[in-house]
Automatic annotation (TrEMBL), chain A:
Residues 857-871 have a biased composition (Polar residues). This is TBC-domain-containing protein. Keywords: Calcium. Residues 663-698 form the EF-hand domain. It comes from the Eukaryota. One of its GO terms (molecular function) is small GTPase binding. Residues 872-881 have a biased composition (Low complexity). Gene3D superfamilies: EF-hand, putative rabgap domain of human tbc1 domain family member 14 like domains, Ypt/Rab-GAP domain of gyp1p, domain 3. Residues 248-436 form the Rab-GAP TBC domain. Residues 934-954 have a biased composition (Acidic residues). Residues 832-881, 928-954 are annotated as: Disordered. InterPro entries: EF-hand-dom_pair, EF_Hand_1_Ca_BS, EF_hand_dom, Rab-GAP-TBC_dom, Rab-GAP_TBC_sf, Rab_GAP_TBC_domain.
From TrEMBL, chain B:
It comes from the Eukaryota. Keywords: Nucleotide-binding. NCBIfam families: small_GTP. This is GTP-binding protein ypt5. It comes from Russula ochroleuca. Residues 229-239 have a biased composition (Polar residues). Gene3D superfamilies: P-loop containing nucleotide triphosphate hydrolases. Residues 245-255 have a biased composition (Basic and acidic residues). CDD domains: Rab5_related. Signal peptide: none annotated. Residues 153-164 have a biased composition (Low complexity). One of its GO terms (molecular function) is GTPase activity. InterPro entries: P-loop_NTPase, Small_GTP-bd, Small_GTPase. Pfam families: Ras (PF00071).
Amino acid sequence: MSTISAQLRNFKEPDRDEQSLLFFAIPPVHVKDDGAGQNNPEDSLHKMEINAMLSLDGAEDSYPGKLHLFPPYLAFASLDRKSVRFTIPLCTVRRVERPNARAGVYSLSILLWHGMKISVQLTSLRPAADQFCALLSMALKAELQAGKMKTVKPFSKTCYSENLILDTSPVADNEREDGSLIDGGRKVGEGNAPAFHGGLGLKFKFPGDPKKLREASKTKLWTTYFRVHGRHLTLLRYPQATRFVQVGLPNRLRGEMWETLSGSIYLRFTNPGRYKQILEENKGRTSTSTEDIEKDLHRSLPEYLAYQSEEGIGALRRVLQAFSYNNPETGYCQAMNILAAAILIYMSEEQAFWLLDVVCDRLLPGYYSPSMHGTLLDQRVFESLVTRCLPVIHEHFQEVDVQLSVASLPWFLSLYINSMPMIFAFRVVDCFFCMGPKVLFQVGLAILKINGEQLLQIQDDGQFIHLMRDYFNSLGDSAHPTSSDPRMRAITKFQELLLVSFREFAVITEETIFSERRRFRNEIIASIEAFSKRSAIRNLKTLERFNKEQVGFIYDALFKAVCVEPPPAPVPPPMSLLTTKDTIEERPETRIGPKTFKVFLSEIATWARDEKIVMNGFQQRVDREVADHELMDRLFWFWDYSYRGALTFQDLVTGLDGIIFSDLMDNIEWFFNLHDKNKDGFLTKDEVLTVSESLLFIFRFEIGDAYLGAVSRFMSNAFEYGDALLPRPEGSGEEDDATPQIESNQPYLSLATFRMVLLADEVLESFFETDLSASFRLEPVPLMELSPSNNGFLGGIWSNIATDTNVKLFHKLSDEVGKTIGRHQVIHRPSIGRYTSIEDTRPRESLLTPAMRHSSSESSLKATSGASSTEAQSRPSVSSAASAATSATLIATDAERHQFALSPTSPAGLDPLAQATNVVANAFLERTPFAIDDAGDDDDDDDDEEEEEPDDVLDEVDAFLDAHETVVTDEDGEVANG
Amino acid sequence: MSEAASGSADKSVQVKLVLLGEAAVGKSSVVLRFVSDEFQANKEPTIGAAFLTQKCRLEDRVLRYEIWDTAGQERFHSLAPMYYRNAQAAVVVYDVTKAASLEKAKTWVKELQRQANPNIVIALAGNKIDLVQPSLSGSGSSATESEDEADDATATPGEAAASDAETENPRQVPREEAQAYAQEAGLLFFETSAKTGEGIVEVFTEIAKNIPIESILASSRGAAGRPGTSGNRPGTQEAVNLDENQARGRDACNC
Ligand SMILES: Nc1nc2c(ncn2[C@@H]2O[C@H](COP(=O)(O)OP(=O)(O)OP(=O)(O)O)[C@@H](O)[C@H]2O)c(=O)[nH]1
Ligand SMILES: [Mg+2]
């Protein structure tokens, strides 16, 4: 049930270039798979923008603006970014000329494939203009070489507008008034299938009364416009185009205009055949998305005739499936079915597929994603705009506790298609594709404004919804039914709505929406994350012995781990296994693998992280790194109760429950089981050695040699005692040296023996009594804070600077400086921290009689080392001893390391373990004492303050700046950090 | 605003009720049956939530249900709190032909019990029992019956087809199992069919009987009177279609 995703956090605001590309609807350049090599044309094709004045050949008016070269596109926007604009693929350009330059005028005449001539006067300085021309010609050549020019003509045939402008239109005779084809579109062009793309409306009729919609005159208007201003790929958007859109697009042209205005046409143009290919490649594949789609196919505009037939249902199914295959993260969201069904009335499947892509990816990002963050964000933005533009209504809503989004959420999510009668909704959609998402907000505000008086009367959500529903149902009525002026009476409420939307709310610009989205993004992300946390906790089968807060900490650690080390996407089970029974268990749930687990564990267990306290004169910080040791993997598999090779949140909670609340005996048993791989109740000799490795790992940063001593005593005791308890072969004498031989992978040490051996040592006893449990800490996890006010320009810059890499760079820099001034110090923070100075704890008296001791210890060790040389795969004791020494190396400083080189090469016959222990002990005597006091003083409680997280970075940058003004001591650094 | 004092005068009590449950289990259909006694074979999925009202008479009281019918798809889940906040009653719907939908219902119940109004009355409704009506004898389902099923199979083709193939009876959730769960969790329990209307009215009557009306009255008297400004809306004044033997004395209330 609980899926944990860090996806929202990874959101990055588009930079300026990306914003331009978005604005001009230029499709992202597909990176070539084969790495492309040096002569990748993208390298040499530069972007450039330049001031320019646009005019059309023969037309009077010209518009100042900016001309952009984004190979392979040329784009223009007038200064106000809305009056005039175009995005033209370079492959539609046939010639570029520089007409005889009048004095000081640098202009280009661009001839397009259908004969249209655009003239742009470059108003920048001469060198810039020259450079622009050079780049343009390079980009054009590249297109020519790639043979792109040839693709334009065939593509244009798929566009209805091309047929419109032919003098003798083959279409007109075959059309009904509403624009649908008399014979269902099958016989256009003397028996050939119509080359142009069109929607289900061609066959099943378009909604609305064509007379009332004035289809014929609108079509004529557009036809004239296309002749002068180009069409589809080369459409120049002049102010009149926007006005034509606002009165409603003619039915037959609607689909093409939607894709042209939204820019999805460029995707269809650059990805020919892709739609079919996606369907082909995924044929027969099922997923949660396809299941959900099936449920809704018959529930999408069911009153429209096409969706009562297999033809319409099939088209809808294919488009939705193709989208979900192509966007597995989004998959399918209810409301997309309604949108898809609506646009399929006007466009072909392929057109609809790409339009849907543009809607979900660019126009309404995150609307239909699993978290629906885009929807929630825009609702928040809408609320804020209402507060600003309609404060009286906002106040009233607050007073009577009415939530705006109970009504407005479906408006946005279905682009009003689900709220208004279809013919009106489609006109909103026309404007939406032409002018962008701001339209949804403008219309929403206008609805509230027009109904303002009644809205002030409502007392609850229900009345609000009713009022809105009634209003939508009356959109076709006169807005001024009592007016004496017949022209006034003729104005419908819908016309009034659009008028108010675009007149009174013209202040709502695209930039308003973007900046409001930026303003509230983090708030929304935080609330979504809080919600998923709550439901993840609620959905746990059991909290075990934890309270809610503690489980919350476990969740936070898990969440952080997922952010740092995202688990691989779950592999969908093969379709044949997808029976209904299985789907009950197969609810989507985040499962983490060993890699993510280690990050998780490092947040919880003190010994699962390497914490270095770094002091460099400017700052004192703790560098935390995830440790890596076999013990951590062991724990992962130990907690994998359902044998899936992956852990759920529940597994982690249950796993932690098994150790955090335990007492001495429980803990010993837990540790025993953790190392008893085959669960037969016995440790093998190898496993005994692994136990000591694990212990050495846990103790690697402890101060003093108490633990090392304890571990080596544990080893010798374990072997002594283990051997002593082995059943002896019949008839062997007491002083017989031939103790039974036992393979290193045979059952050797029972739990009872293990316990006894551990309890023989005071240090280990206290470790198992309290320290082991206490090393798992449930405390607030320093999460990557979302800065609350990431709104301003500066905020953006800061957040860019404060990336993780930059933090590291900064640390490195200050470390370097610290080294040069001799103030660089690194101390490992101990995981347990019980002993704060070197002190020797004496072992308890041996459990064994001197005789037992004498006879068994040596032989056992001999036996294991013998086994080791013969058995290559199992872990031999010599290397274990060596690795015990290597583990010990971890705590030694470089200066001491050379001594350890001795131990692996210890001559045969000598007791290798004793040797290793010796070396370890030596190392301790020689350890420089610098670490001890400082580290000991350090309180573990301030972990969270010293994480290297973006938020803290600012503090550290501050600290750094401070450092340059005043003489900074370590304490100052700490203060600044705190 | 003429009935401003209605809250206490005609003893009409406003009850906020929310419907929750997996997508396509028939929440909207249940409401539609209750509110207008209709059934639509292909109901559009609910986007966000829909709002309807219906009056219901219980003894001498008139209850005015304000019904929030929510969207079922998992990703709409995070919106649900917006609709169930302050709800006095909830109907959690599952589909008797889909075992997974009961699991989803259970998580809803859990969430309501922890997050919603503590006195909320929750009813569990297993819908679509028309699809699993014991066909008299094992294989004796009438021709019309099977045609009906074929009809529904278009609405939810996957499961219907699958279950048809497996067994005679597409039921996946035994009545006893759901009932036992409901009892354990302290829920009212019903099996319903929005298609035939079976059990629908009972759900709402039973809830009405279990609602702590007095406390709602007390609290709404304190608050602003709940005038019937929108009481004259279409769809709300239809009478609940009473089964003749439903002697609860409920009737239409065209106000
Ligand atoms: N046979 C049968 N079909 C039903 C019944 N109730 C609903 N359906 C059908 O099941 C499908 C889904 O019904 P809805 O009422 O829209 O389901 P919902 O729970 O509101 O779905 P969402 O709004 O998507 O959450 C529709 O095709 C209904 O016709 C029933 O009692 N019997
Ligand atoms: Mg519904």
